[in-house]
Structures are given as structure tokens and as C-alpha cells.
Amino acid sequence: MKKLLIIDDDIDMCLLLERFFTRHQFEVKSTHTGKKGLEELERNKPDAILCDFRLGDTDGKELLIQIKQITPEVPVIIITGYSEIKMAVDVMKHGAYDYVTKPLFPDEILITIKSAIASADNVPEQYDANENSKPKQNSFSKIDKNTKYIFGESKEFKDILRQMDLVAPTNYSVIISGESGSGKEAIAQEIHARSKRSKAPFIAIDCGALSKELAGSELFGHEKGSFTGALNQKTGSLELGNGGTVFLDEIANLSYDAQVSLLRVVQERKLRRVGGTKDIDLDIRIIVASNEQLWDAAKTGRFREDLYYRFNEFSINVPPLRERRNDIMTFAHFFLNKSNAELEKNVKGFSAEVEQIFKVYKWPGNLRELKNVVKRSALLTATDVIDVTALPFELVNHKRLVFDPANTEEDDATTAASSMGEGYQSFTDTVLEGNSSQSFTYMDDQTKLSKHTLKTVSIDAEYEMIVNALKKANFNKSKAAKLLNVDRKTLYNKMKQYNEFNEQ
């Protein structure tokens, strides 16, 4: 029986999820604070963790970093509000397996958790040199060279494919830049597959998930007794990639000390394990990725300039999905086919209205967000075509949530219910399995604030209140302004402020 740990300060939510997953043959433990969650993690290691992003004593990002230091191999799924997509994407780069958005659908979460556990079970095991009987898992993943990927048909992506064909046969180091979720790792894997090293290992390392204290050991390995807790010799990820390609994702998050050690590896193709005295020859190709321009990080002193020049033998910039809209439906159909196989369904496509929504939406989470939306929609669809009733609230109503103060025409006649159905006015999930018939209403948590900047907290809180007022007023902006006790001009200005902040 697989073990699941739930960390959420909503007691009703925990009760619902406990009942649901217990019926699906999980051994479930739930805690209501980050501190208690870490204690339960150390006491009884689970197979997967389901964690709310907003907790009373910490936030999801800080807790995730601590979880990954204790058990880097255990997959973590983050629960987040749809207005927190940027935060969720940030958490993904710190090692989260996936995120699910409110309102929650237990069946959807079940599929995600089963997929996470299956993925963790398939991660290649690493054995200590002096203790072969005990398997250990590392924070990297080996990628099957036969894995298939789909690439877009837009001019921008054809340019990327042309660059990949040029650089793949060489041993050049490559910098891949692009927003989180835009497909940087898939491009790195494809470069490896088209190279002369295709039959050798491809090692992917998430630098954002490496703590400052353990980065050296994870990358370079260590000798027995080199530090407290080093009971056996360990082979590092770079050495395991010998002969093949090493992909360093989110390289800008690597600590300064690790950057210094990595500089010698890149320059001389030699490494020395932590606590070791012997140099080890390396024959590796290095591909790095970052969701920011490494040159900007180097100019501001957050990334070593000399290391940047070592990596910058060739660079590829991946445009965000909103800048290559001709690719959106290509990827959507690809993700739908994968979802059909996973869910054992036969959804054939998307309605014309859904396609139009997909093409005009900005997709802040890029391909990762599109994949999650398609998976969720396929799960909810009872017919052979996905229509607007299966889409998330903010996706369907994105135009209503973008305000132009110059537009004084009020479109109060059109309501949310007419385009979305009654299910989006208030979502209630009823569990009717076994002897339970209890109803739970899922809402975004508006009372807890994330520990980012004061500006972020203020704007996000105002946004949540405005969205809830608009829902209650069926998107009648005058009525929503009255509910908020502000005039209509103030309502427009607040939403404009949010839109500008969200685009920065």
C-alpha cells in the first residue's frame, strides 16, 4: 500500500482527501503545519506528498526546499490557487513534481499522484561503491533516449530546430534560455538524441533543487569520511554522465561556491570528489538552461562572468508560448492524445470556442500550464469534444479579468453563467462512495498571505477580492464595485495595476 502525506491547514480539505485516498488503497497521513509535516516526513517516509502552497507557518516554496533536503526522491505536488500560477511555476523549478489548482477535483489529483509515484519508481537507482546491497536515489533523472517529443510548426520553432541540427553533431556547450515551462529540457534531450553521444547517458540536474550544503556532493560526489554523514563513497552526477550529456537546469540558482568548482570542470574536463585527492577525467557535453538571461545575471554579479563565457559557445532562446500562437493547438492535441492514453478515454478534440480561448490566452505557465489544462479538461469531459464548461474559471473569463479604463461600455448583460454553466458559480464536490455523502465546497484561500514582497501581497489580495466580487455580481462591474465599496473607476484602475504587475 502506497503512503501519502497531506500538508494542508484546511482541516475539512484534509478529511475529504483522507477519505478519498483511503478508499483508493492509500495509507494517508495529514498534518496542518509545515513543521508537523517535516516531523511526519522524517518519522514515516511517504511515497508522495500533497502540500498546500499557503500554510500558516511557512509557504510552499520554503517547505519544498526543506523536503527536498530530507528526501529528494519523494515527489511533491503543490496545491495552489489559479491566480498564483507564477508562484506555482517558481515552485516547479525548485523540484516540485507538479501542481494542481483550486477548485480541486479528487479524481484529477489521484491521477497526478499515481503518475508521480510511477515516475519516482522508474528513476534509476544509484548504488554506493562500497554498499551495493542498498539502493539509493539521487536528485537527477536519466532520460530514455527513445522518448518522443513533439515540436511546433511555427517559424520560431523551425528556427530552433535548424539551430539544433547545426549544434547537435558538435561538442559545443549550449545555453538554452526561456521562461519556465517553455520546453527547455525537451530541447536539450533532442540535442543529445541527435548528437554522436546519443547512446551514452543523458543526466538532467535541477540546480534549483540543490541546497548550498549538498550541491558539491550531488554534482562532484564525495569520498568516505569527507564530512559528517559521509559514510560511504558517492559518485556524483557529473561523473555518472561521463561519455554523454549533462543538462544543468536553472543554472543561475547554483550557489557561488558550486559555480567556482564547476568552472574548473568546464575548463579542464576534470573533477575531484569532495574530500578526494585524485582528479577524474571527464568526457561530457554540458547544456545549461535558465529562465532568465545568464548575461544579465553575470552583469549583476549573481552568476560568474567567466563561467558564463565558458558555457556560451552556442545559445538558443525559446520564445514563450504566447509568442508562437501557431503552435498552441499542435501541442494541445499532443497533450490530449497523451491524456486519452492515460485516462483510457477517447476525446477527439476541442470545440471551436475552446480553440479560440486557447489562442488568445497568454499562458503564463507556457507548455506546462497548457498540459495541465488539457489533462484536467479531458478528465472532466463526458463527450468526445472538450467544450468551455471543462476549462478552468480564469481561462474562460480571462478577457473579463483584463480591464481597460478607456473602455466605458459596460457589458452587464452577459453573465458568467451563460458561458460557463452553473458549476462555476460555486463548485461543490460530493463524495458518495461507501457510507459518505458529505459535501465540501472548495475555495481559494484569501486570508493567508505569501512571504514575498509587500507589493506582491497587496496586489494578490486585492485581485482575489475583486474576482470574488465579480463572480457574485455575474461580472456586472457596477454591482461588483458596490460590493467592494469603491467606485467603478477605482475598480478599473486596480485591475489595470494587477495586469501591469503580472506582465513584469
Indicate the topology.
Elements: E1 2-7, H1 11-23, E2 26-31, H2 34-43, E3 48-52, H3 60-70, E4 76-80, H4 85-92, E5 98-101, H5 106-121, E6 126-128, E7 131-136, E8 140-142, H6 155-167, E9 174-177, H7 184-193, E10 202-206, H8 215-220, E11 221-222, E12 234-235, H9 237-240, E13 245-249, H10 256-268, E14 270-271, E15 280-281, E16 285-290, H11 294-299, H12 305-311, E17 314-317, H13 328-343, E18 349-350, H14 352-360, H15 366-380, E19 385-386, H16 393-396, H17 416-420, E20 428-430, E21 439-441, H18 454-472, H19 477-484, H20 488-503
Parallel strand pairs: 1-2, 1-3, 3-4, 4-5, 9-16, 9-17, 10-13, 13-16, 18-19
Antiparallel strand pairs: 6-7, 8-10, 11-12, 14-15, 20-21
Helix pairs in contact: 2-3, 10-12, 13-15, 18-19, 18-20
Describe the fold and architecture:
With 504 residues, the chain is of the alpha/beta class. A six-stranded mixed β-sheet has the order 8-10-13-16-9-17. Strands 2-1-3-4-5 form a five-stranded parallel β-sheet, sandwiched between helices. A hairpin with an 8-residue loop joins strand 14 and strand 15 (280-281). Helix 10 (256-268) packs across helix 12, helix 18 (454-472) crosses helix 19 and helix 18 (454-472) packs across helix 20. Residues 123-147 and 404-452 have low confidence and may be disordered.
What is this structure, in a nutshell?
With 504 residues, the protein is of the alpha/beta class.
